[in-house]
Amino acid sequence: MTTRTWAGTVGKTAAWMGLVGSVALLTGCASLWPAPKARPQITARYTAVPVQIDGALDDAAWKTAAVYPLYMSVAELGEGKALTEAGEVRVAWDDQFLYVGIQFKDSDIVAEGQEDQLHHYLMGDLAELFVKPADRTWYWEMYVTPAGRKTTLWFPGRGRLGLKSSEENPGGLRVAAQCQGTLNRWQDEDTSWTGEMAVPVQDLTARGETFGAGANWTVMVARYNYSRYLPWKELSMTPQISKTNYHLWEEYADLNLVK
After folding, report:
1. What pLDDT, in 10s, does the model give residues 106-133?
2. Which of 211, 178, 168, 152 is nearest to 52 (CA)?
3. C-alpha to C-alpha distance for 106 and 169, rounded to whole angstroms
4. Is 72 in contact with 86 (CB distance < 8 Å)?
5. Rounded to whole angstroms, how far apart are CA atoms 88 and 192?
6. Residues 150 and 142: beta-carbon distance below 8 Å
7. Maximum Cα–Cα distance across the chain
8. CA neighbours within 13 Å on the CB side: how many for 160?
9. Is residue 136 over pLDDT 60?
10. Quick one: what percent of the chain has pLDDT higher than 70?
11. What is this structure's pTM?
12. I need a surface site. Which of 31, 100, 139, 258 has the fewest CB within 10 A?
């Protein structure tokens, strides 16, 4: 009887120790498992004074706006590449427009496309705005170039071709740009260019979306940079995404509209 009691005690102790060890092992594994990455945020503050779209970035809204730097994608950094020409992005809003202001260092400013609604990323430098209602499949892709040209594309979903602005897909995007250098002259060295975009809220909400403080939108601003001083065109963005594919809307930042 004593033997059986001792054996039972040993068995129970071994089982308990095994359970403790299993819990410790699981806890240790859990600590090694990476925590889910929080979605980045881009904050746009409400402005009571409309931004004047002249490309100058001297409005009061830009003086108090958060500044977001451009990044190369994680994949390109992993290949040993480094960003050569930096850039900054600012975002603001009011009841009529979503505003984007950009300032890009640029040693060779080029924008060969002289009309709106072209695929300007094939023709020179530009800033691209991607904006998407978080709970819908559709999204917008909009350009401003150093020449002050613009394009608006609307995608019903990532698996569909983008539709240009038309009567069926209205787009009242307003843009302007200023060059600190000489546009399309490769013989000299330029400094930078600035640009502004104003996206009408009525365009963004044409399909029943809401826009304003607390509304659920995602956003990314991206850049194409061509230069005789670069070995190849340089692509960058904010927020940083995993690879250089500007249509990875799962990795866009939450647009935090603050009023």
Report:
1. 999 999 999 999 999 999 999 999 999 9
2. 178
3. 33
4. no
5. 11
6. yes
7. 101
8. 12
9. yes
10. 84
11. 0.86
12. 31
